[in-house]
Each structure stands twice: as C-alpha cells, then as structure tokens.
Design brief:
By secondary structure, the chain is α/β, with parallel strands linked by helices. It is globular and about 90 Å long. The longest helix is centred in the first third of the chain and has 29 residues, at 37-65. The chain has 33 helices and 23 strands. 49% of the residues are buried. It starts with 12 loop residues before the first helix and ends in a 14-residue tail after the last helix. Helix 25 (663-669) links the parallel strand 21 (648-651) and strand 22. Keywords: Carbohydrate metabolism, Glycogen metabolism, Glycosyltransferase, Phosphoprotein, Pyridoxal phosphate, Transferase. Its cofactor is pyridoxal 5'-phosphate. This is Alpha-1,4 glucan phosphorylase. It catalyses: [(1->4)-alpha-D-glucosyl](n) + phosphate = [(1->4)-alpha-D-glucosyl](n-1) + alpha-D-glucose 1-phosphate.
C-alpha cells in the first residue's frame, strides 16, 4: 500500500485510506508495501482513535456547557471484547473499511482477528458493565466507567490431556492503540500506616493517618463510542505504578534489594485479574486492589467536580456513583474520609452527601460471594477506614434501636461487623447502609435480595430496594455479531431496531410467513456452517450444520449445572449405543467456559466433558447422531462466533441461584430456544417470548427452598426410582468414560447422591429429559421450530441494555440525555 500525505479526521473512504497509510508510515515506521495484517489493524485502530478523540472532547465540552449531572460506574471488571470491529460498526464504517481492505488484499474479518480481547473480566459482571457503557454513549448520557488496568487477564485456557490448563493472558502483548495514557492525572494512593488522634483548630477530633506507604494510580482512557458516532464517553482504567520515592531508612541501611522489592510489590496491584472462585489469591493483595480502584475513582471524580468551582456539599446534585457489586463498597468509607478528614465537613452532613451520591447493585445470592474482610487485615491495610466503618456502624445501630428494634439477634444480623468467630467487616452491609438505592438484576433476584439477603434492611428501608433487570447491547450482540440475521431484520423492518429494540416486535407477523421462515432458517444454517468450519480448524471435530446445535457457554460452576447437561449427554449416548434409539435429529452438544484455577469440582466437570467428547465422537455407533465439542478459551470474541449459530440455549441453573444471566438474553435474541429453569431473567424471557416458545423444566424457587430448608432431599430416592438416573450415575462410577482412570469421576457419583448436594441435579433430571424430548420432536419439524425461533427474536426488545440504562437514569441516577445540537434524543 503506497503512502500519501493527507488530512486526518475525515470519515469518507478517501480520508480513511489516507489516514491509515499515514499511520503505517509515521506511527509504525514502515513502508506501505511492508505492512502486514497486524500493521494494518494497528493503523486502522489509530485512525479510528483520531476521530474518537475529537468526538470525545466535543462530548466533554457538551456536558460541561450543559452543567450535566454525571454518572460514574465503579466495577472491578469490564469485558469489552475486541474494540476495533465494535467501533467500526458503531461508527457505521464497515462498508468503507471492508472496501478499502479488499483493495489492499485483506478482509475486515482477518484484520479483526489480530486484535486481542481485553481480558478485564471473569464473566457476566464484566460483560454487563461493557453493555452499560455502550448504551450510555448511544443514549447520549453523561456516564463513564472506572476500573483497573489489569496487565494480565483471567487466564488463557487450553485443554491438554482432557483437562483445563491455565496460561497467562498478557492481553497487552500487542499493545492497545485505542487507549490514551493520562499520566498528568495520576493519583497518589495511601496504604497501611496508622492513625494518630489530634485536636483540630475548632477543638474537634482530628484524626491523622500517618506513616502510610504510597503508590501511584496512572489512568488510561478507552473511548466508548455510541451508535452513530454522536457521543463518545470513556472507560478510565487505573494502572498501579510505584512512586519515585524509596523507603530511605531501608535504603540507607544498605538493603537496596529490599527497597526495590517494595517498589515492585506496588505494581502487583494491577498486575492480574482476580479469578471469581479462587481461594489462592492473596487476601491482602485483593483488599488493596479493591481500595486502589475506589481511591483512584473517588479522587478523580471529586477532582473533576471541584474543578467546576462547586461546593463539595453539592456533589449529589451533579454526581451519581454506582457500585457494581460489593467490590467497590469501600467507596462508602473513602468518600466519608475525604469529606470529614480532608474537606472538614461535619459528620452528619458528610453522611448525607455519601448516601445521596452512592447506589449499589447486588449481583449474587451465593453466600460465599458476599465479601467480608477481617478486621485485623483492614486495620493493617486501611486503619482510618476501619475507624470510619466502626463509627458508621455505631450510629447506624443507634438508629435501628431508636426505630424500636430491641431484638439483639436482629441487631447483630444488621451490624456491619460480623462478630461470629474472628471479627469481619460485611461489605454488602456497608454498601446497603451507605447507598440511597439497592437493586437486584432480575425480578426474581430482586425479591430474593429483600427476602433472603437483606430482609432486616428491607423492613427498615422498603423504599430503598428496587429491581433493574439486566439487558444486553443489540449493537454488539446482534448488529455486529450476527450480520446475516441483522441484515435480514433490517431488510424486513428497517434499521431503527438498532437503537430501539422494541421495533423487533414488527417481526412477529413475519414469523407466520413461510418465505420469511425459510430465509430465517438459511441465515441460521449459514452461521452454523461457519461455526462448523471453526470447530474443524481448532478442534479437529467435524460436525454437521444440519444437526441441533445445543450450547451451554458460561463460567463453569456447580450452580450453573454443566454437570446436569453432561448427564443428559451420557443418557443420550447410552440410549443410542445400548438401546438402539434413533433420535429425531442429530445433536451437537457445545460447551464453553472457564473454571477458576482453584475450583476442583469445576475443573473436573471440564475433564468429564472432554472425556465424553473423546469417547462419543470416536464411537461409530453414536457419532452420526451425537457429537460433543468443548470450545476452549471462552471469551467475548468466541461468544460472537457461538451465539449466532445456537439452536438451543442451556440456561439450567438451580432455581434461586442465578441473579439474572445475560447469556440467556444473547442466545434468545439470536434465535436460539431456551431450555431452562424458572431462575433469574429466564422467568422474564419466558413471559416475553411466550411459554410455548420456551422449554421449561425443574423445581421452582419455593420448592428448592422447601427441599433444602427441611433437609428432606433424598437423592437416593431418585436413584432407586428412575432407571435413567441409575444408568447414568453407574456409568460415571464404573469409569465408562475414563477406562484408564476408572475411579476418577467416582466423586461425582458420591456427591450427586449426597443429601448435602444443594444444586439438586437428580431432582431436576427427569423433567430435564422431558424438555429435551420435546426439543428433539419439534426441531424435526422446521416450520414449527423456525416459527418459535423467529418469535424469540421478535419478542426480545425488552432486554436491551438501553432500556436498563433508561431505568437506572430515571429511578436512581437522575441523569438525562445530552445529544449533540440539532440531534433528537434516542427513542
């Protein structure tokens, strides 16, 4: 490609071409003819960044001129996915870019494949945060994200000898051209030290946090472009760097290595993303990591606010801060510390500012996921914050008693400090007490938050609790990920659905049209054929695009019940090979997901799935009817390949365990039919798409609570009563799928038959089989199946993250859109 000199910031094909060639020459230092695929990808990203920065500055000026109230989203995780393709689609440049690349001998798809996924999240929590940022920008709302600039992501997963192997995911290895380093806005972060009691000039108590160690938080901004290139917000990620200051006492003692070691330790804070279920990660480092996020964010937010020459007591009028789960809960204590210690705001007025500014989203019902930190550790790391938490707790419990509560057991339950055994700070309680709003993320989950997690708080503050059902961005999860289906939709009803997903309801009458169903089926088969090619290249497994593509793609966890799915695979295999059963249609079972490195049970479930794949795919009696694929290293870019090709979406968690789920929404939006329990957002999806278009099975939440609460669950009863269950478990126990290690899966047999098996696999197994029988029969009738699939797409409008963001903005944040001059607000 030749180099030419030209202006930088146009958006037509000629300007884009010139800019890309300029960056190849002047940013990468190469001749045009030397530029390979990766070079072109980098130059494209830099070209887009030039335009995004222009628009980001214009957006910032628009907010400032309007004195807009702003929302700041604090999250320990963000799963952005590849940014290059997403930006191209949101800027509506896919046609221009594809044409340019073709003229240079490249394709847009191969260019995008050279970008690494920014591995800044474990799963749904981080992906939801990314969807929210997309919707905020698309809706022209003043909101941005704060997080940590992890150097290493969760981990890269490979399968070796049928087991998960973890390798470091240095996602920055190729750089990230899109991001902007903001070293001039770095933050000094204090840690450790002690508190000295002093008296202020006014005679009041003046605590001084002294002898603390410091490190630096350096911000990096990633522009977040909304659809149509109208608004560009940003995600600000902080990287931990050591200061230029050594501990001179250590240095003067001649221990140079120890002095250097302290500097290196500081940078560990943003080195690696914490795995969700890991217990091996250092507790102290994790606490420091969470405080690092909170301190950098609060300092940056208040700096921006005060730059406008406003009184700090006006903070809630112009600022909303959303805590995405308990990880940023220390924001309650840090904002209080800043107000009381640094700004000298009286306690009661400071507390009023804190509670009016902060809001809290709970994402889990799992007791082990509700963070608690030992008082001893917090006193070591954050001595002043522990003092503040104790004072918040004292005043709060005085309020509880003043409200008429005399039950000391209830008061102990509501305390921010857990006194059972070693004292611990309950971070979820701190977030609830310090926020003006507490929301769950689906209707069922929000009810369980009030009923199970925080019943005493809900009784005290019933108006504080609300629901905000999660959503997904249709830009990435339909418009970009599934161009075949999005093209068919746009041809049928126009393009307004991209920013107004309710427009999809116009497809409902077309589901009755045989010609539309035929075209819909053609789009689905093309996506399946593309995925089949990917499997053949990456796994060597050959699958037919005419089979049912049955998928479960999500983090591996016992409550998500990949084991239940695997049991069904065993059941199908034994029916075919031992009973001579002929299924109505071939089935390809696709599993994808990572198990936390320290989570034995989850890793062994992956081991079982890989053994099933090896045995079943090699058995000529079954391989024409059943194939099993484990798609390794699940990430956003892999999800974009899997989801458009799915026929069946497995959403099979035990009722009452999944907060919401967003994978269930992505699959359904792309025309997969759900087999699922009444759990999380499954309930709302079933209501929306119609009970007849959803394959329901399993116990309800009250039934689960009753079985577990009464201790009446007896899995041996199911084992004795149902030969189907007995045959599957006996095959596991006997080493049918692990002849070289006959006892390797025997623990599963024992656990599934234990009265303490709290996810009730056996209780739900027979109804799960019934649901799959219905799936097989209905898939064999293309008219029936495609009508159901098309109606799923048509009725998913309510699950856009645009809708979710509008509800947060209206009910919690008090922010509104600020579109460019002359542009109408989004519908």
């Amino acid at each position: 490609m030749p180099v030419a000199s030209c202006p930088v910031h146009g958006l037509d094909a000629d300007d884009l071409s010139c800019s890309i060639r300029e960056h190849v020459a002047h940013s990468l230092g190469k001749r045009g003819q030397e530029a390979g695929c990766r070079d072109v990808a980098t130059a494209m990203a830099l070209t887009l960044r030039d335009r995004l920065v222009d628009r980001m500055l214009e957006t910032r000026d628009r907010y400032r001129e309007s004195r807009a109230k702003r929302m700041y989203y604090l999250s320990i995780e963000y799963l952005l996915g590849r940014c290059l393709g997403n930006n191209i689609y949101n800027m509506n440049l896919q046609g221009e870019m594809a044409g340019l690349l073709q003229s240079w001998g490249f394709s847009l798809e191969e260019i995008r494949e050279h970008e690494r996924d920014p591995a800044l999240g474990n799963g749904g929590l981080g992906r939801l945060a990314a969807c929210f940022l997309d919707s905020l920008a698309t809706l022209d709302m003043p909101g941005c994200g704060y997080g940590i600039h992890y150097e290493y992501g969760l981990f890269k997963q490979s399968i070796e000898n049928d087991r998960q192997v973890e390798r470091p995911d240095y996602w920055m290895a190729e750089g990230m051209p899109l991001q902007l380093e903001r070293r001039d806005q770095a933050v000094i972060v204090p840690l450790y030290g002690r508190v000295e009691d002093h008296q202020g000039p006014d005679g009041g108590y003046l605590p001084l946090w002294v002898d603390w160690q410091d490190l630096v938080g350096v911000p990096y901004d990633i522009p977040i472009v909304g659809y149509g290139d109208r608004t560009v917000n940003y995600l600000r990620l902080f990287a931990a760097k050591s200061t230029d200051n050594f501990n001179m006492q250590i240095f003067d003692q001649g221990d140079y290595i120890k002095a250097i070691h302290q500097k290196v330790y500081s940078e560990l804070i943003s080195k690696v993303l914490y795995p969700s279920e890991s217990i091996s990660f250092g507790k102290e480092l994790r606490l420091v990591q969470e405080f690092f996020l909170v301190f950098c964010s609060i300092r940056d937010i208040t700096r921006r606010f005060l730059k406008q020459n406003r009184n700090i007591e006006e903070l809630p009028e112009f600022t909303a801060i959303q805590l995405n789960d308990t990880h940023p809960a220390l924001a309650v204590a840090e904002l209080m510390r800043l107000l009381v210690d640094e700004r000298r705001v009286p306690w009661d007025r400071a507390w009023n500012i804190v509670t009016r500014t902060l809001a809290f989203t709970n994402h889990t019902l799992m007791p082990e996921a509700l963070e608690m930190w030992s008082v001893e550790l917090m006193e070591k790391v954050l001595p002043r914050h522990l003092q503040i938490i104790y004072e918040v707790n004292r005043r709060f419990l005085d309020t509880v008693r003043a409200s008429g509560v005399t039950d000391e057991a209830k008061i102990r339950r509501m305390s921010l400090i857990d006194e059972n055994g070693g004292k611990q700070v309950r971070m979820a309680h701190l977030a609830v007490v310090g926020s003006h709003s507490v929301n769950g993320v689906s209707k069922l989950h929000s009810e369980l938050v009030k009923k199970v997690l925080f019943p005493d708080y809900a009784a005290l503050w019933p108006g504080k609790f609300n629901n905000k059902t999660n959503g997904i961005t249709p830009r990435r999860w339909l418009y970009k990920a599934n161009p075949g289906l999005s093209g068919l939709i746009s041809e049928a009803i126009g393009e307004d659905w991209i920013t107004d997903l309710d427009q999809l309801q116009k497809l409902a009458p077309l589901a009755e049209d045989p010609s539309f169903r035929e075209r819909f089926a053609g789009v689905k088969r093309a996506a399946k054929a593309k995925l089949a090619d990917y499997f053949a290249k990456t796994t060597g497994i050959v699958v037919s695009p005419d089979a049912v593509f049955d998928m479960q793609a999500k983090r591996i966890h016992e409550y998500k019940r990949q084991l239940l799915n695997a049991m069904h695979v065993i059941h199908d295999y034994l029916r075919v090979t031992e009973d001579g059963y002929v299924p109505p249609a071939p089935r390809v079972y696709v599993f994808a997901g990572k198990a936390a490195p320290g989570y034995f049970e989850a890793k062994e479930i992956i081991h079982l799935i890989c053994r099933l794949s090896k045995v079943i795919n090699a058995d000529k009696r079954a391989s024409d009817w059943i194939k099993v694929v484990f798609a390794a290293d699940y990430r956003v870019s892999l999800a974009e390949k899997l989801i458009p090709a799915a026929d069946v979406s497995e959403q099979i968690s035990t009722a009452g365990t999944e907060a919401s789920g967003t994978g269930n929404m992505k699959f359904s939006l792309n025309g997969a039919l759900t087999v699922g329990t009444l759990d999380g957002a499954n309930i709302e999806i079933r209501e929306a798409v119609g009970a007849e278009n959803f394959y329901l099975f399993g116990l309800t939440t009250p039934e689960v609570e009753r079985l577990l609460g009464e201790g009446s669950y007896d899995p041996w009863e199911y084992y004795r009563k149902h030969p189907e269950i007995r045959r599957v478990l006996d095959a596991l126990s006997a080493g049918r799928f692990s002849p070289d290690e006959p006892a390797v899966f025997h623990w599963m047999f024992e656990k599934l038959l234990s009265r303490n098996e709290r996810y009730l696999h056996l209780a739900d197994f027979m109804t799960y089989l019934d649901a799959h029988e219905r799936i097989g029969m209905e898939y064999a009738n293309p008219d029936v199946w495609m009508r159901k699939a098309a109606l799923n797409v048509a009725r998913m409008g309510g699950f856009s993250s645009d809708r979710t963001i509008r509800e947060y903005a209206r009910d919690i944040w008090g922010i509104k859109p600020f579109p460019p001059k002359g542009a109408a607000p989004r519908a």
